[in-house]
Amino acid sequence: MGTILNAIAVIVASIIGVFFKKGLPERLQKTIMFVMGLSLTALALGWFLQYFLVVENGEIATQHELLVLISLVVGTLIGEKIDIDGKLQRFAYGVEHRYKLPPLAKGFISGTLIFCVGALAILGPVQDALHGDISVLAVKSALDFITALMLSAVFGIGVAFAAISILLYQGAIHIAAMFAGMFLTTTMIEGFSMVGNIILIAMGINFMEIKEIKVANMLPALLIPVLYYIVVGLL
Question: What's the CA angle centered on 173, arms 48 and 74, to 5 degrees?
Answer without folding.
Answer: 50
